[in-house]
Design a protein that fits this description.
Blueprint lengths: L1 H24 L2 E8 L4 E4 L2 E5 L2 E5 L3 E7 L6 E6 L7 E6 L5 E8 L4 E4 L2 E5 L2 E6 L2 E8 L6 E7 L4 E7 L5 E8 L4 E4 L2 E5 L2 E6 L2 E8 L6 E7 L4 E7 L5 E8 L4 E4 L2 E5 L2 E6 L2 E8 L6 E7 L4 E7 L5 E8 L4 E4 L2 E5 L14 E6 L2 E8 L6 E7 L4 E7 L8 E5 L3 E5 L8 E6 L4 E5 L3 E6 L2
Parallel strand pairs: 1-7, 8-14, 15-21, 22-28, 29-35
Antiparallel strand pairs: 1-4, 2-3, 2-5, 5-6, 8-11, 9-10, 9-12, 12-13, 15-18, 16-17, 16-19, 19-20, 22-25, 23-24, 23-26, 26-27, 29-32, 30-31, 30-33, 33-34, 36-37, 36-40, 37-38, 38-39
Length: 439
């Protein structure tokens, strides 16, 4: 056992010394390429890598071999010299002919390779050159099969084919017509469509039309069968997007309120719709829209003004303007005015008819009046605000504190307090928890 251990160590030591001597002495470089690449390279039976390979070797004479599965081994001689310039070597490998076995179910089908009859299946073909191979397999009562195969060099391959019986006749109609018919994902025409040679067996049928759900079915037919298919396609919903100038117009579809612009309506069935847009002080728009299955449409409506215009100035400025108790804006100071008259504030458009105009400013009496405006009419109004007396009482209730002017002479059960905002607040005496003079 000890003797074997010593021999192993000597064996490895010799190889290490040999390797170091080769590394020290080797000064020649050779680049080895093969066609095709990927071949195993040997130099004097010593492995030198896989092509393309770069080998550093001791100057000497070598027999170079290249081997690759499916190809004959290629040889060449090589003389390396102690030179700084690398040597290049190219080897061409010849492919080994292959063997191909063609079997069909059922058997006895006629096999033709590259247009020449080669025999009946099962058919053994020897010595086939590697590369693309085309052929035709035929059997009475069965659909012909086109053979396309890439033969690998030096291999034995078995090709199995299931022959399909003769075709069936299928007529396909759809509602609506004009749909595209696909068999096994290949488009073959549009409905109404007659297929006179559909191979027996199972086929994936699809009927597609824009705006409709795709109809899918696995179609199984037998040889000589005649079948008629009438397919009702289900329409995809459409959508309509409405915009208007101005925005916030009411949208009615077939007289049913659906929202205000901008508005998007989806999942609408195909068909014709009566659309109405309404907006105060603007002319109502009515139109009919035809929506196709799955269609997406966008509409923008510019609405025509029909209302009037109210132009308000106040002295002093910064007074709030309410139209029908809704805040419409506030007058602004006029830098060039000498009597504190505001800049004109334009309220447009106003619906034709009567409107209540209220002017409010803290510390001034409230002004309210009714105006009657016609379509396209422009009314200019100026309001001089009267200052209120300064607050002289503060009245506290359980829920609030009010400051305003009170004459103090009211002997009734209600206190009439003129607030700083110009409003009048009537406070029951029994609700006042505190009445304090603030003069």
């Amino acid at each position: 056992m000890l003797h074997k251990h010593v021999n192993n160590r000597l064996f490895y030591l010799k190889h290490i010394v040999l390797y170091l001597s080769i590394v020290t002495i080797a000064r020649a470089t050779v680049h080895i390429n093969t066609d095709p690449s990927g071949a195993h390279i040997r130099m004097n039976t010593i492995r030198a890598g896989i092509s393309p390979a770069r080998v550093i070797a001791q100057p000497n004479a070598y027999l170079v071999s290249a081997t690759r599965d499916g190809y004959f081994t290629s040889f060449d001689s090589l003389q390396l010299f102690d030179d700084t310039e690398p040597t290049h070597l190219a080897l061409t490998l010849e492919p080994i002919p292959s063997t191909l076995l063609i079997r069909t179910t059922p058997a006895a089908a006629q096999v033709s390779i590259d247009g020449h009859a080669s025999g009946l299946s099962p058919l053994l073909l020897r010595g086939i050159e590697p590369g693309p191979l085309t052929g035709l397999i035929q059997l009475d009562g069965y659909a012909p099969l086109h053979l396309r195969h890439n033969v690998e060099p030096g291999t034995t391959q078995i090709l199995e084919f299931d022959m399909q019986r003769e075709s069936a006749e299928i007529t396909i109609e759809s509602s609506p017509d004009g749909a595209t018919v696909y068999l096994n994902e290949e488009a073959i025409g549009t409905t109404p469509l007659q297929i006179s040679a559909l191979p027996a067996g199972s086929t994936e049928l699809q009927v597609q039309m824009r705006g409709y759900r795709t109809f899918t079915e696995t179609l199984t037919v037998e040889a000589g069968e005649s079948r008629h298919l009438n397919i009702s396609l289900i329409a995809e919903p459409g959508s309509i997007h409405f915009n208007s100038t101005p925005e916030r117009a009411r949208v009615l579809i077939d007289d049913n309120f659906r929202g205000r612009t901008p508005l998007s309506l989806s999942t609408l069935p195909a068909g014709e719709y009566r659309v109405t847009l309404e907006h105060p002080a603007y002319r109502t728009i009515q139109t009919n829209i035809l929506l196709q299955a799955g269609e997406q449409r966008d509409f923008h409506f510019d609405m025509e003004v029909t209302g009037g215009t109210l132009i308000v100035t106040t002295t002093p400025p910064e007074a709030r303007i309410l139209i029908n108790d809704i805040l419409a804006g506030q007058t602004q100071p006029d830098p060039e005015s000498e009597d504190e008259t505001s800049l004109p504030y334009e309220i447009h458009p106003l619906v034709e008819g009567e409107h209540t105009v209220t002017i409010l400013r803290t510390g001034y009496r409230r002004i309210q009046e009714t105006i009657d405006i016609s379509s396209h009419e422009r009314i200019t109004k100026h309001y001089d605000l009267d200052p209120l007396p300064k607050p002289n009482y503060e009245i506290t209730t359980a829920t609030n504190v009010y400051r305003g002017y009170w004459s103090g002479t009211n002997d009734t059960d209600t206190i009439e307090l003129k607030l700083e905002t110009g409003m009048i607040r009537n406070i029951p005496r029994d609700e006042a928890t505190s009445i304090r003079s603030i003069r």
